[in-house]
Amino acid sequence: MNPIFKGLGALVLLGLSSLAHAFDLQQLSDQLAKPEVIHGNFIQEKHLRALPQPLTSKGTFVLAKNNGLLWLLKTPLQQDYRITAKGIARRDASGWQMLPGKSAGAEQNRLFLAVLQGDSSGLQRDFELSLSGDAQNWKLTLIPRSLLLKQVFKQINITGGELVSTIELLETQGDSTLLRMQDSTRFQPLSTAEQHDFAE
User: Fold this and answer.
1) Which domains does the chain have, with CATH numbers?
2) Model-level pTM?
3) What is the DSSP track for 173-193?
4) Tens of pLDDT along 141-168?
5) Quick check: 163 and 181 in contact, CB under 8 A?
């Protein structure tokens, strides 16, 4: 056989096999759900129509598969949040205090936890999901289904590789939030203090 045809045949077969093994939502969920604990830093930019410059906040986060998320703001002010299946708690001088659970902010945090944990079935209840790319470089687009979420979000874009790297929230009113997760590592177990924070 002509080597050019042979080469083309191999390319076609490769193309077909890659189509057959296209990266799908289940694979993405499995990939994001693998790590037991993820530590990292974040930079959050809130772009408000009324302001020329974004409001930037920075901090660290701890995502624990069986516990939830610790979201620890460092600048411009220091404030610790804990997001779990039970709801959202904020730390004050006397310990963790649960926040009211029916706000748009609560919805946003519940969604955020589902995204980071790779809970695509949870996301599919509330959003139309569209995934492109492969395991090392993917983009997930979420379009809200429910009326409550449509009032808040126009679209949510999430990108990543092995772990989530950016989350962009485009709000109906024209504001947006860009969240960049940096230096994420999945090889560091929960510290004693972190275990205590989740247990309280």
Assistant:
1) 25-198 (2.50.20.10)
2) 0.81
3) TS-EEEEEEEEEESS-PPPHH
4) 999 998 888 888 899 999 999 999 999 9
5) yes
